[in-house]
Write a structure and sequence with these properties.
By secondary structure, the protein is an alpha/beta fold. It contains ten helices and ten strands. The structure holds NADP nicotinamide-adenine-dinucleotide phosphate.
Length: 272
């Protein structure tokens, strides 16, 4: 079955599921996860300068023998590289590590105070020169996105934020969708910190699916891109096996009640 894609405001398509690779730093572990993912049909990989594994992603896609155009590769500018000259120089390094002359998506990793405005201008320049097919942001709140309207020539293609049934952020999703910004859900499994909710488990049992599959499918039905991370081949397959069933409106509404503002990563909420 062909995996769904979403069209970004640049006209480029993004596969609706990507493999997250944060915290995967071991060479062999990375290659095994990548190979399992590629075999299962993943073509979208979410990396970052901060993850210190862009070189492993570069090696892995090269080793696959598949052409570069088959893959959708994302990286993100690390907080330490937000000064404009550093954005450009660090991005050149990223391309070398990824063994590619472009990325499909380049993000600012976090709304770093003061520096984010000129860092975005540097991303616009990279986009204009073709180094990134699409550019976007991560961890931006509505406030940060509204501020961007004052200085951005290009509307971000995506906002990558923490999202799962236990952290739903409906206002932020609605704002992004109204602005034509695709929302990417990071930590879609809540970093596996809450895998025992009885309501999720009951719905999983009803559909003959796993707990993780219900968490991921709920996000997919909201029209979001999902970035589950796993280094376990069986889970990598499990996480992508969610496009052959549909959660009913009634059960979606039940899952909508599980929001408890659970943040498992960093919070941008109070970043000025
Ligand atoms: N932009 C940002 O600031 C930001 C922040 C955080 C994350 N991200 C991105 O989002 C990706 C995913 O987020 P995340 O790594 O925080 O967490 P996640 O995907 O929500 O959860 C990953 C955890 O769940 C486990 N897991 C995976 N599939 C499972 C399954 N089917 N059943 C049970 N457990 C399962 C994994 O274990 P194993 O690996 O051992 O299988 C791992 O411990 C990251 O890798 C990164 O690409 C971005």
């Amino acid at each position: 079955m062909a995996l769904p894609e979403i069209t970004l405001n640049t006209g480029k398509n993004i596969p609706q599921i990507g493999l997250g690779v944060w915290q995967v730093k071991d060479d062999q572990e990375f290659q095994t996860a990548f190979d399992a993912a590629a075999k299962a049909g993943y073509r979208h990989f979410d990396s970052a300068q901060f993850y210190e594994n862009e070189h492993l992603l570069g090696n892995a896609w090269k080793n696959s023998g598949l052409p570069r155009e088959e893959f959708f590769l994302t990286t993100k500018i690390a907080l330490a590289n937000f000064k404009p000259a550093k954005v450009a120089a660090s991005f050149e390094e990223s391309l070398k590590k990824l063994q590619s002359d472009y990325v499909d998506l380049l993000l600012l990793h976090f709304p770093v105070t003061i520096l984010r405005k000129n860092a975005w201008k540097a991303l616009e320049q990279i986009y204009a020169e073709g180094g990134a097919k699409s550019i976007g942001v991560s961890n931006y709140t509505i406030r940060h996105l509204k501020e961007m309207k004052k200085y951005a020539k290009i509307t971000p293609a995506v906002n990558q934020i923490e999202l799962h049934v236990f952290l739903q952020q409906p206002e932020l999703i609605e704002y992004c969708q109204n602005e034509g910004i695709v929302v990417e859900a990071y930590s879609p499994l809540a970093h596996s910190q809450d895998m025992n909710d009885q309501t999720v488990q009951k719905i999983a049992d009803k559909y003959g699916k796993t707990y993780a599959q219900i968490m991921l499918r709920w996000l997919v039905q909201k029209g979001l891109v999902i970035l589950p991370k796993s280094v376990t081949p069986s889970r990598i397959v499990e996480n992508i096996s969610i496009f052959d069933f549909e959660i009913s409106d009634q059960d979606m509404a039940v899952l909508d009640t599980l929001d408890k503002d659970l943040r498992t990563c960093w919070s941008p909420v109070y970043v000025p």
